[in-house]
Structure to design on (823 residues):
């Protein structure tokens, strides 16, 4: 059975994948459907949804097109979510794997380093980092990655510690496999399930973190994001519900889709489940 | 025709035409089919079968402890005139402990790790609203004395982890007996214990049963245990009863082919045959090996030291099988792990064909690794669930420089050799049974053409009939490939079956070593004699013959 067929056996995963593809299409089509900058004021402010042609989701406090913002924002939010999670995994997984596999002094040193990051409140650190580096997409992605890798390292370390003394790992050591091969071939594949689940949640947290940063005015001033839209609409949530509702729904759907896809990937990668069904 | 019995007046428990259905998708529709048997007053009824035979299911139904999705669909279980299957959960709860007691296989997990032993026994009285707290403690102490725990006044204040396995099982028995039940159900109560402890617990159960006039339903996989303890036997297979009758007649004159096969599959009680010991230069020489495990002390706890190996010296000739026998904690596994260098010995020499393996490290060690391989105990934990079987076997040769395609081809040949067929290469470990997985483990150990194979309890996790097959395979491969084996086991019967020489270990030291024949016929040390005496189902120790 092919990988995709196994993946598709999980209905939820398929739904998640479809939603995700829709959001990506939205992001790609944004410049074609709304060639004008989403920041431009195009109508009078506080136009409710469906009240005027060309503004299906209404306009915001400054008279900007909400539909346009939503589509342009999809790109930024997805990019920030995915890239910052990948960077966080790139830092967290190797650190956790090395700490968990070797133990001893190496573990102590790496974990003290991890704790150094964990003791500073996430959000405060992210603000400081973005403020120092000047707000831009790159600095935001980096800041989010830097504050979100410690849990990954912790999780991977714990998994490695419990797996490193399994008999099959000992068997691999006995036949003379190198430590690198054992880490990559024997242990890492067996830690994938929790990593995938954690990663799909991290994408969601990253999107939310970016929203919070944008809300504080630390977003990239050149790009529209869902977080910025919610942040800007917060003060008028009772007069103009649609301003925070639509980007909110977009974030919700994206996070849900990522979780479903993550779960489906986990099932498809797990040889035991895939053959039993 | 299902085998049935006539009910008589002194029947305590009577199971009639019981069917228990498994949930959809299980390997068979009924866990237990048309099962009828009785437990009479004051007898020990042994239910024997291999794993998956449904031997525990009926007992679980009696206790009202069937797993979710598993239901009794037909038949009745009569206990004191009422049908247990018709009881509500509340009525069942009132019965459990009070009229029917139960002991489990693993006393460590059956006891609450955070509760003192005395409190756990007292809890049994509390659950049934008997006595006041002070009397409960007094009763708990009496029970602990009755089950023969050393220093009962101290033990009552102990936590489960402070007791040994045998003592924990005694506590379980004390709990089960607290309310003087009429029927005691014992589900593999000695399987997790050492032979000598097993012998003591069996004696305790028999003794208590006679003193109290209880009935016991004893579930086991071991015919040796049956011979020790049973009045009557019920042999089960695939959910059906294949033979039912007097222990003596079933054991001596089994009617059913399966029972005969099971009894024949027990590694023989008979004295091992005399084997020629080769006088060639030793392949493996262990000299004065020492290993101490230290746990780091904390703020308030002192550092602990466990001497796992103390001055252990032995030799193994090429083509020879040496058995290391001992109880848990004897250091036998540590010895095996030092030989394959999964542990680093503190001092001493490990000479393999003259090369000292004991002090090698890093890459130098990795290059020598292929010479000594290991077969692991747990067939479920020793294969990576995400690696295909062929790759699991081929990864050794690949790590040592064989091209991937050639290594995979060789893996297929090896799988063929251990009787699984080359097509197994493409499958995942979970598609195989325990015995088949152990064959894969053997193929993996053979892949590097090792000079020595260490088998650490390689057949302990398997059913007797499978055990016999795997031992046969090992014996055959040994002949064909002239392998040398270091065979670590707690089971003297298995050791007798396969080993040329036997080394008996206790507390990290070698107590006695000699040819298998000599160890069995003329054990010199008292400890070896105790071990031999404790083998269940063994006749009185054979006197030394000329």
């Amino acid at each position: 059975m092919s990988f995709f067929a196994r993946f598709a056996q999980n209905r939820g995963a398929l739904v998640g994948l479809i939603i995700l593809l829709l959001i990506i299409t939205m992001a790609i089509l944004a410049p074609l459907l709304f060639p004008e900058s989403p920041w431009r004021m195009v109508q009078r402010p506080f136009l409710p949804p469906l009240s005027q042609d060309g503004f299906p989701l209404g306009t915001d406090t400054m008279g900007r097109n909400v539909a346009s913002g939503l589509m342009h924002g999809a790109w930024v939010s997805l990019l920030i979510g995915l890239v910052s999670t990948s960077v966080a995994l790139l830092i967290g997984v190797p650190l956790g794997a090395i700490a968990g596999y070797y133990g001893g002094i190496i573990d102590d040193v790496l974990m003290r380093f991890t704790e150094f990051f964990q003791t500073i409140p996430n959000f405060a650190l992210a603000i400081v980092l973005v403020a120092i580096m000047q707000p831009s997409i790159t600095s935001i992605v980096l800041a989010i990655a830097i504050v979100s890798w410690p849990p990954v390292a912790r999780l991977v370390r714990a998994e490695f510690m419990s797996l490193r003394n399994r008999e099959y790992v000992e068997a691999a050591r006995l036949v003379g496999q190198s430590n690198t091969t054992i880490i990559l071939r024997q242990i890492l594949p067996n830690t994938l399930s929790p990593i995938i689940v954690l990663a799909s949640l991290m994408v969601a947290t990253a999107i939310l973190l970016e929203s919070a940063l944008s809300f504080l005015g630390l977003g990239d001033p050149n790009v529209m994001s869902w977080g910025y839209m919610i942040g800007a609409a917060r003060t008028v949530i009772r007069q103009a519900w649609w301003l925070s509702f639509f980007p909110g729904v977009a974030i919700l759907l994206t996070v849900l889709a990522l979780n479903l896809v993550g779960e489906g990937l986990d099932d498809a990668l797990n040889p035991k489940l895939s053959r039993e069904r | 025709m299902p085998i049935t019995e006539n009910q008589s007046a002194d029947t305590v428990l009577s199971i009639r035409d019981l069917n228990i259905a498994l949930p959809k998708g299980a390997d068979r529709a009924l866990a237990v089919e048309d099962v009828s048997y009785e437990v009479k007053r004051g007898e020990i009824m042994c239910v024997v079968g291999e794993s998956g035979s449904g031997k525990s299911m009926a007992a679980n139904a009696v206790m009202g402890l069937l797993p979710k999705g598993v239901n009794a669909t037909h038949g009745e279980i009569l206990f004191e005139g009422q049908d247990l299957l018709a009881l509500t959960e509340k009525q069942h709860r009132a019965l459990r402990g009070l009229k029917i007691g139960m002991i489990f296989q693993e006393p460590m997990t059956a006891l609450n790790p955070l509760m003192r032993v005395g409190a756990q026994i007292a809890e049994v009285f509390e659950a049934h609203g008997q006595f006041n707290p002070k009397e409960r403690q007094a009763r708990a102490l009496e029970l602990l004395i009755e089950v023969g725990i050393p220093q009962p006044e101290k033990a009552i204040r102990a936590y489960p982890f402070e007791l040994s396995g045998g003592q924990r099982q005694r506590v379980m028995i004390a709990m089960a007996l607290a309310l003087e039940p009429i029927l005691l159900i014992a589900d593999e109560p000695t399987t997790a214990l050492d032979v000598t402890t097993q012998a003591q617990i069996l004696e305790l159960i028999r003794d208590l049963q006679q003193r109290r006039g209880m009935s016991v339903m004893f579930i086991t996989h071991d015919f040796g245990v049956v011979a020790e303890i049973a009045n009557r036997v019920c042999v089960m297979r695939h959910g059906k009863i294949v033979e039912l009758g007097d222990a003596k007649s079933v054991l001596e004159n089994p009617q059913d082919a399966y029972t005969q096969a099971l009894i024949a599959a027990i590694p023989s009680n008979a004295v091992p045959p005399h084997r020629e010991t080769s006088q060639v230069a030793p392949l493996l020489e262990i000299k004065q090996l020492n290993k101490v495990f230290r746990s780091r002390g904390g703020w308030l706890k002192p550092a602990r030291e466990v001497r796992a190996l103390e001055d252990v010296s032995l030799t193994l000739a090429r083509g020879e099988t040496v058995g290391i026998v001992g109880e848990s904690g004897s250091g036998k596994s540590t010895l095996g792990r030092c030989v394959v260098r999964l542990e680093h010995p503190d001092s001493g020499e490990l000479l393999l064909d003259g090369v000292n393996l004991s002090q090698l490290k890093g890459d130098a060690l990795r290059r020598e690794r292929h010479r000594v391989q290991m077969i692991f105990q747990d067939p479920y934990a020793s294969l990576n669930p995400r690696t295909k079987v062929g790759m699991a076997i081929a990864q050794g040769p690949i790590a040592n420089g064989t091209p991937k395609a050639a290594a995979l081809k060789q893996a297929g040949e090896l799988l063929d050799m251990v009787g699984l067929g080359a097509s197994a290469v493409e499958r995942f470990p979970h598609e195989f049974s325990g015995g088949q997985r152990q064959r894969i483990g053997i193929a993996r150990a053979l892949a590097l053409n090792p000079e020595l194979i260490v088998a650490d309890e390689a057949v302990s996790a398997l059913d007797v009939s499978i055990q016999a097959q795997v031992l046969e395979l090992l014996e055959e491969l040994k002949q064909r490939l002239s392998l040398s084996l270091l065979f670590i086991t707690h089971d003297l019967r298995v050791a007798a079956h396969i080993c040329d020489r036997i080394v008996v270990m206790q507390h990290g030291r070698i107590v006695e070593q000699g040819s298998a024949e000599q160890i069995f016929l003329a054990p010199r040390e008292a400890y070896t004699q105790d071990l031999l005496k404790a083998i269940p189902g063994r006749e009185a120790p054979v006197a030394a013959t000329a």
